[in-house]
Amino acid sequence: MWEYTDKLKDHFFNPRNVGEIEEPDGVGEVGSLACGDALKLTFKLDENGKIAEAKFKTFGCASAIGTSSVLTEMIKGLTLDEAAKLTNKDIADYLGGLPEQKMHCSVMGREALEAAIDNYRSGGKKKHELEGTIVCTCFGVTEQEIERVILENDLTTVEEVTNYCKAGGGCGGCQSEIEKIIEKIQGDKVKGVPVSAPRRAGKLTNIQKIQLIQQTINEQIRPALRAHGGNIELIDVEGSKVIVAFRGMCAQCRLTEFTMKDVVEAKLREFVSKDLFVEEDKESAQEPHNHRE
Amino acid sequence: MKTVYFDNNATTKVAEEVLEEVKPLFCELYGNPSSMHTFGGQIGRRIRRAREQVAGLLGCETSEIVFTGGGTESDNTAIKGVLAAAPNRRIVITTRVEHPAVLAVCRELENHGYMIVELSVDRQGRLDMAELEEHLDDDTALVTIMYANNETGTVFPIEDIAELVTSKGALFHTDAVQAVGKIPLDLSKSNIDLLSLSGHKLHAPKGVGVLYVRKGTRLSPFMLGGHQEAGRRAGTENVPGIVGMGKACELAAENLEAENSKVKALRDKLERTILQKCPDCRLNGDPDNRLPNTTNISFEYIEGEAILLMLDKYGICASSGSACTSGSLEPSHVLRAMGVPFTAAHGSIRFSLSRYNTEDEVDYTIEKLPPIINQLRELSPFVTK
Question: How far is A101 from chain B (nearest CA, A)?
Fold first, then answer.
């Protein structure tokens, strides 16, 4: 059971400003059905350039709906410059707080507002687009967006970043990348915080190397493959040669050699040793595979 | 405000008859069954009786019943205990739609050198027996497949699966937590080697479960530190839980057929009316092979948590496979494995009934739900009028 404030519950059960403004001055659309929440914000300005009317339509949980409703009330009467300064924290504070795992709802509100303002300023041409490189492919979150939630909310862990913008909450394959972004921004603050990724060590005994390879496969590689219905098994290690077998969807995939092998090799080189190379176990590659959808 | 409890796959009310049976065991008959004195020793008789009652429901021998701390412990014990006793076999076969008590255990084993095969399901949540057969070989230690799915109620052909698996020399475990008390069982005529059940899913208290272990099955104990349960589960017996479990099994055995037909009629009315009254919704699961008490319906373009909170305002308790209810960001692994599209997976609601539900409660829910769906759809950007 989520702990929602009375204010949020009020806005969920009695949402204000529901709908779409006809011929709006600005439109902002963010999120998607696949992601689990989506928000369409429309506004109209008065003759002084202040927001006279704002309406929303939201697909999502109670906090997504409550946050959207509150946002439309917050921005009424503001100039666009004032509205553009709103942060997700302002929205969450206005509600008397949100459960940690629901903070991304406040970020979605701020994103929709920005998109709507951009849309107005570009004369109705600009639609919300992702800027920068995508870090989290599951939820389509860019590096820029991750940096921003870290800065605005003083985040120091991957879990927090996931709560605020969903990044890293799907297959988990990008979590080490998020860790690096946190380190880059927060620097000293996160020193001494244990990181989940195995550290690359200097000289390893054979046993240590094999264990580290197995650990890297378990923690860094398998979760990403699982998310796509695949799997990987470590068959053997001969010197610098790492022999693996791909299962499930990855095994069927004709592109295995060009994609999965490279990904695994890159991860192993990053976390274990630079001289490693990966080979696919031929015997198991000939196993019959299931081609059901 | 009255409470309409339609979440019986999560947990159930303790039956009044069970409570009466258990009451004296706290302040009057609180002895330890392992003690030498009569005061403690008399408790042993109560545990024996409970064992007979459980065996009666399952159609097995009393020596094949091991009391545990719950369904999750039974699952853990079965999987880890079988593998520890069969060190030469490295493959475990399961399905993508198992309860986490099985799936998480299997995925953890993967990190210890085991190979896990997760069988897929079709759109109705059904397994492909040919796929199972294809994967069975000399290296398969265990196949663990649930009897009935907790989210959709889909029932797997467990007897056929057990026959196939055991004919190939592997052991077969089934998590029957949702099935026991709803589907008649006769383990004396079955090929199932291990079966898990949970007390609080069939009107017994929480914190007690059973693992059925077929006579002659090699199983390493999961808990050490005492001789209880013939050395298979150490620890002083949870006497009230065990006695409650026995009574609940006895009640289930007596009333199984009558209750199932009553519960099924209520479930069918609820389901049929919702599907009629609400546009753009779909039933999840196999309509032909299903628990009599469960229905899982997806409402397109809206999100499950929001529906649940609106129902909650009227005292109606249900659950959802939506991401937002689990604290994760992905919707139900069961619905995703079935290929239910995201549009529908996020808005799924499960109603699970019990013998304590009434037709009035069904009528009340049928009246309250459609306006809720309409209200949320008016908020949704994906519904265009």
Answer: 7
